[in-house]
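SAMPLE LOG
Freezer: B-3
Tube label: C17
Construct: single chain, 343 aa
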Amino acid sequence: MKRFDSPGQIKVGTIGYGASFQIAKHHLSQMKSIGMVPTAVADIDESRLPVAQEDFPGIQTFSSATELLANCDVDVLAICTPHNTHADLAIECMDAGRHVVTEKPFAITTDECNAMIKAVKRNDVMLSTYHNRHWDGWILSAVEKIRGGMIGDVVRIEAHSCGFRKPRQWWRSCKSISGGIMYDWGAHYLEYALQLLDGNMTEVYGHARYGFWNSETGYGDDSNEDEALAVVRFDNNQMLTLFMSNIDSTPRRGMLEVVGTRGTFFVDPKGWGATVQEGDAEVHRSGPNHAAETWRFYQNIADHLVDEAPLIITPEYARRPIHVMDLAGQSAKAGHALPTAYA
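STRUCTURE (predicted):
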């Protein structure tokens, strides 16, 4: 694998420079803050290229990934394109000898993840996905308190994002492009939850409901689910549920409810809370979350490429949430639970 003497030797770029959330600008800014050098941007919408040049004066611009790879010696590329393009673009870049970071989600299917992992091995390059929220303040607080024994042994986690929400008319509302309702925040929620569970996944059950919002999205029958459920079983009898809905306005506390043998911990961006059994008494605890440390993602990338530090968000790690969402979709169609191929 190509290594570097310092972050300042690492030339970085993005595939895609779309306006959505200014994600590509964010990636380049984060990489620059660590000391890496923004060098190139490619976008098939050439109207976005002058924006990149304004944001990063002197940066090279190209009208496709293929053109960039043929004409620029950039070392690390962040894939900032719609979800269904991540795998093909990442493989093209890795086959050209470049290190790659994909935006989250890593891919849409388990097979795509496996194809990307094969490309890592045949090209001896680095591959990661942008799970910068691995270091969100609320999950850092949860890991500290729960691993410290506040609620005893973890029994199950219920992750949810619900509301009566009309989807926007954009590609994220299209199932074949986005992967479905779970593949945005659901990928984060699964990554949070898997930090707190010790067992190996054994099976996934899925359920989905379609049709209510189809006429609003512009994609008809290719619209995302109105709501979807994934239930994951583990070999140590732990359980994880992920429920995402755009038709359920039932109030729920926090993003994740972590149930343990001595209480329940609520993961919430507003501050953590817990209800804990202490003898015969039920005690309510709460506090502020840690400050976010999301900068640590690209710091780890640089440390890995310069000092051979262990990569934290490995492609095998990034495959786990995708495997859950992929199997949940397959299970919803099959009507029964499916065994996991990866723990």
